[in-house]
Amino acid sequence: MKKRAWLCLLAVTVMLAGCNDKANDKTEEESTSSHQIEEEPQGEKDPNGEIELPGKLSDFAFAMDGEAYSLPMSVEALNSMGWIYDGDDTKSMDSESFLEGSTIKRGKVTLTADIVNLEGETLPIASCQMGGITLDLRENKDMQVTLPGGIVMGKSSLNDVLEAYGEAADQYEEKDTIFLTYEYGIYKKADLLFDAQEEILYKIEMKNFRSPSSEKGAGQVSREPPKEVMGYTRPEGLQEDISAFALEYGGFYYRIPAPVAEFLKNGWSLLEEGSDKSVEAGKHGYVALEKDGQRLYGVVTNYSDVPVIIENSFVTSVHGDFEVTKVPIKVYKGITLGMDEENVKALLDGVEYVTKEEDGVLNYYYYADEEQLDYLKISIDQSLGLVREIEVNNNPDVLPQNEGEQEDGEDSADATAMYTPEEPPREDNVPASTLPDDSNEKGESE
Predict the structure, then answer these.
(1) Which of 37, 102, 248, 298 could cysteine-pair with 330, CB 3.0–4.6 Å?
(2) DSSP secondary structure string, 328-364?
(3) Residues of the chain predicted below pLDDT 70
(4) What whole-number distance in Å separates Cα of residue 254 and Cα of residue 322?
(5) Cβ-count burial of 115 within 10 angstroms (0-12 exposed, 13-18 middle, 19+ buried)?
(6) Torsion sign across C-alpha atoms 266, 271, 274, 279
(7) What is the CA radius of gyration of the chain?
(8) Which residue windows does the record flag with biased composition (Basic and acidic residues) (predicted)?
(9) Rounded Cα distance, 197 and 175, in Å
(10) How far is CA 214 from the centre of its chain?
(11) Rounded Cα distance, 353 and 392, in Å
């Protein structure tokens, strides 16, 4: 993007009536100072000037009209600052659910907010938290907002933001707006919108539906791998039963759900900004992994009865496509990215599935449960007739190796032992192939 010079840096050629020739010889610097004084009268102070904000956008902190905010933020705290939820705040919200597009008001200012219940029990809205906010100068022109790194809405340019926060995960222009998206994991991102002509920030949309407690240090949780992790056995190949949820991902075999530690062993690294530090017993959390420049944002579950560090939770969703998360992925009977639709249908012969068409994409769904929460999705680009995206999401209540009673103190049989591997066993889980994430959370929305 080209930089624009402020018009006030040009020499002023038209002076006030009654000024003499000497006044007409003012320097460019004096003219600039005069212009600034005209726009910002001396004595006017930035209401956010005394507020110290962290230096990273990923902290989801901001200052607005002289007050500090941070996402998520309790509805009770908002009420104490004069904000009122526009609706019935006694209405109940299910555990770990969210309500997008809500409204909060204070005086003449109305803002769009997202309300989240981050607790493990049903709560009234009044006891929940604000996890998302939209700040728009075109709707509230007198609003004064400052982000970490000294970014000021209505003043900071596109280049200022890029210098402060680095390259965005996505940048594009549509009609009269330039969009920047900074992603830090599932339900954890910031969209910054700029006027396409002036390239000045005018709108901010932030979401952080993540519990602060999950991002604290793991000093009070077990660092030892629980029996659920120790009992995980990777498949030696793709399985003959589609319900096994076995796949090849990034050149290694997994059965989903699979421990985060298994991904780390296979060359992925943990991205702290997008990952929870720990996961409570029986609860879900979020992880961000990176390998060879590709990122996998996944939902994780702790299947043990004690809190664990994120490494000892289980990844329940993986994703691969040709556009965003370009990770080689191969599923049931070798279905992979780029395969033609006729071959996909042939390989799915005998499998009960449903199809759903959306925006030129035909999605093949295999559902493992009646609630349709656990599934394999194969997306076909209708214009090309080829697989463009594959998603695996499996979060059972009980891990397969722990289902049912175990007799005589023996471990239950690994599900993979019942099936014939597609390929000969390998040692040390070496890469199986090199083919050509963003994940789907099984959350609830009211």
Answers:
(1) 248
(2) -EEEGGGEETT-BHHHHHHHTTT---EEEEETTEEEE
(3) 1-44, 212-219, 401-446
(4) 21
(5) buried
(6) positive
(7) 27
(8) 36-48
(9) 11
(10) 15
(11) 14
